[in-house]
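Slide 14.
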Amino acid sequence: MLVMLGNRNTREIRQSDSNNYNFWEDQKIKSILGHPVKRVICDKQGNIILDIGDIITFRALEQVKQANELDYLFTSVYRK
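Slide 15: predicted structure.
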């Protein structure tokens, strides 16, 4: 992919990329809220955040973010 920089500096480009990533991550998060999970999600200490069949809530989502397991959660959503 060819990107023309023009007068934009790299800091602005990084900020734009970051905003774009945050937008897509927010969209993914909104799409999984209220869905059950098909795998157990644990924090770094091994405490269960979500068990099989548990519904993804805002509270659980925050715990998963703190445990840095968001990508694993995205792959663990049960969709009919």
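Speaker note: The chain has three helices and two strands.
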